């Protein structure tokens, strides 16, 4: 079955460009378009896409709020959101990730990267390189806790090794790099990451990285 994609952007020409790129792929089908967040919510309910390609800055309702309502912490549905941004360090990107987005992509990214991003997010992974996650969090460190607040009780449910893995995820290491650092297999790392996500009620490693910073487990820039 092809990946069902909903395009959300307030610029019709951009939506047309994205549609042309995606419809050239045998495993992707664009099922609808929306020009703002309000329309996006309506289309998600009507069309049940697998992935929403979501612009951030739009009239009526921006992409952050739309993302929160589509796939926030209280949502268990299968719809994934891939946020689009014009700028490499858009001030709203971190908020979109907190809201439940599975990652972000620049609007000027190559066509092949856009297609790959759709496939990765549809498969349930996070389309945001760990190094980029850390760079974003470091850039917006002033929005995060100082680290002086108490550590959340939820962290106590993790084993010592799971805490180690969470810290390394937040610091931008891939599964292969974590495996090398801890002298274990990548399969073992994937298992630990899965346990961390389940115990903390998180969607993917992007939210795990955000959680590690917000909880004070990892400090920006360190």
TrEMBL record:
Boundaries of every Response regulatory domain copy: 4-122
Keyword DNA-binding tagged: yes
Keyword Transcription appears in the UniProt entry: yes
Family matches, as SMART domains: HTH_LUXR (SM00421), REC (SM00448)
InterPro entries noted in UniProt: CheY-like_superfamily (IPR011006), NreC/VraR/RcsB-like_REC (IPR058245), Sig_transdc_resp-reg_C-effctor (IPR016032), Sig_transdc_resp-reg_receiver (IPR001789), Tscrpt_reg_LuxR_C (IPR000792), WalR-like (IPR039420)
UniProt keyword annotations, A-Z: DNA-binding, Phosphoprotein, Transcription, Transcription regulation
Positions in coiled-coil regions: none
Domain HTH luxR-type, first and last residues per copy: 151-216
Residue ranges of the TM segments: none
PANTHER family: TRANSCRIPTIONAL REGULATORY PROTEIN NARL-RELATED, TWO-COMPONENT RESPONSE REGULATOR
Protein name: Response regulator transcription factor
Native source species: Streptomyces millisiae
